[in-house]
């Protein structure tokens, strides 16, 4: 495993739990859809769009990073585009031997051309079903609620998605710019979601302090945390993650780009792992961060001199913490 030979990592079975649909759109597809649906984008030149939808090295924060999502979301406003983009994400994932993926997206970002929340979820599910029929991959959806939107907006997503639970929708999430103390606002929403049968994962401890991670666990009932790197600075939050067996969905490259962490050398993931915290390695946004899971794993394994036994441990912890059904988990465990 201590190698630069990408093809070794590529052949390993993989699971990804933290991947945003709108951050993982093929650049050529953005151009194709813009032409087909007469959508205004700054250019039809691949190189130009490439520059605009990928984060550059002078990104200063999570808020800055999120600006790159404007163009992809412009072309994700039709049933056709949502289905195609979902299918292509899973096709890309299958090509690097990802066996299971949880795709997250915020339905309310896709209502600007008149689609209902139901139609949006159905279109993404159609992309999932088509990919599953063609490739050896399984996927489920996480419906994200934007922290910049209202509680009523979040309830709309939760209520609309309810009928798709068990049919490809499995969980909900809160994402977008992170303010201190956001959890209290969404307490009732997440309680309702849990009662309906949604699993809960929350973005926290990325753009603000580890205290948000503590609140996500205690107030919102988070079973997993997106990122969570800032628990490194707050002992009580760190212990809550450890004691409650909450898996951290770590996205190393993205964390450095958003300045949640200043370098790979200072990324706490290895410390977390060695101390017995459950972690999974993820891309976050394949296009925006210019990364795929093979490259992300390669980088991490080289950086921290991990070996195949470490890989198995991380893989199996990831499978256990996934929101897949038991049959799918069994299928995934058999690959290792």
Lay out the secondary structure:
Blueprint lengths: L5 H6 L2 E7 L6 H10 L9 H8 L8 H4 L4 H5 L4 H17 L2 E8 L11 H18 L3 E9 L4 H11 L7 E7 L11 H10 L2 E6 L6 H8 L5 E4 L7 H9 L3 E4 L1 H6 L11 H6 L4 E3 L11 H11 L4 H14 L4 H8 L3
Parallel strand pairs: 1-2, 2-3, 3-4, 4-5, 5-6, 6-7, 7-8
Helix pairs in contact: 2-3, 6-7, 10-11
Observed structural traits:
336 residues; globular; alpha/beta; disordered N terminus; TIM Barrel
**Tally of structural domains:** 1
Largest sheet: 8 strands, parallel
CATH superfamily: Metal-dependent hydrolases
CATH architecture: Alpha-Beta Barrel
Write down the oligomeric state: single chain
End-to-end separation in angstroms reads 15 Å
| SSE topology string | HEHHHHHEHEHEHEHEHEHHEHHH
What structural category arises from helix and sheet content?
alpha/beta
Alpha plus pi helix count: 16
Helix proportion: 40-55%
Number of strands: 8
**Quick one: overall form?**
globular
Quickly name the level 1 CATH class: Alpha Beta
Using only CA atoms, what is the Rg? Answer: 19 Å
What spatial order of strands do you see in the largest sheet? 1-2-3-4-5-6-7-8
**Unreliable spans:** 1-5
| β-strand amount | 5-15%
| CATH fold field value | TIM Barrel
Pfam families: A_deaminase
InterPro entries: A_deaminase, A_deaminase_dom, Ado/ade_deaminase, Metal_Hydrolase
Protein name: Adenosine deaminase
Catalytic activity: adenosine + H2O + H(+) = inosine + NH4(+); 2'-deoxyadenosine + H2O + H(+) = 2'-deoxyinosine + NH4(+)
């Amino acid at each position: 495993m201590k190698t630069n030979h990408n093809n070794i990592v590529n052949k390993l079975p993989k699971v990804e739990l933290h991947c945003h649909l709108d951050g993982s759109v093929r650049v050529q597809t953005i151009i194709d859809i813009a032409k087909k649906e007469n959508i205004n984008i700054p250019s039809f030149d691949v190189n130009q769009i490439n520059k605009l939808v990928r984060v550059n090295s002078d990104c200063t924060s999570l808020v800055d990073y999120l600006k790159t999502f404007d163009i992809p979301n412009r072309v994700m406003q039709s049933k056709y585009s949502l289905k195609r983009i979902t299918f292509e994400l899973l096709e890309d994932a299958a090509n690097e031997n990802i066996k299971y993926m949880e795709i997250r997206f915020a339905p309310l970002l896709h209502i600007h051309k008149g689609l209902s929340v139901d139609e949006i979820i159905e279109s993404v599910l159609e992309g999932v079903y088509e990919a599953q029929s063609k490739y050896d991959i399984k996927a489920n959806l996480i419906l994200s609620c934007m922290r910049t939107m209202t509680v009523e907006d979040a309830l709309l997503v939760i209520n609309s998605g309810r009928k798709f639970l068990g049919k490809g929708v499995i969980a909900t999430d809160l994402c977008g710019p992170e303010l201190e103390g956001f959890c209290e606002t969404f307490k009732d929403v997440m309680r309702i979601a849990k009662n309906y049968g949604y699993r809960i994962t929350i973005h926290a401890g990325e753009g603000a302090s580890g205290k948000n991670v503590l609140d996500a666990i205690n107030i919102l009932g988070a079973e997993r945390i997106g990122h969570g790197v800032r628990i490194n600075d707050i002992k009580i939050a760190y212990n809550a993650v450890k004691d409650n067996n909450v898996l951290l969905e770590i996205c190393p490259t993205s964390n450095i780009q958003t300045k949640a962490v200043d370098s790979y050398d200072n990324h706490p993931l290895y410390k977390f792992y060695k101390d017995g915290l459950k972690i999974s390695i993820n891309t976050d946004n394949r296009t925006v961060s210019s990364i795929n899971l093979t490259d992300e794993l390669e980088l991490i394994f080289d950086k921290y001199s991990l070996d195949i036994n470490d890989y198995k441990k991380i893989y199996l912890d990831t499978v256990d913490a996934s929101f897949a059904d038991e049959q799918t988990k069994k299928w995934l465990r058999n690959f290792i």
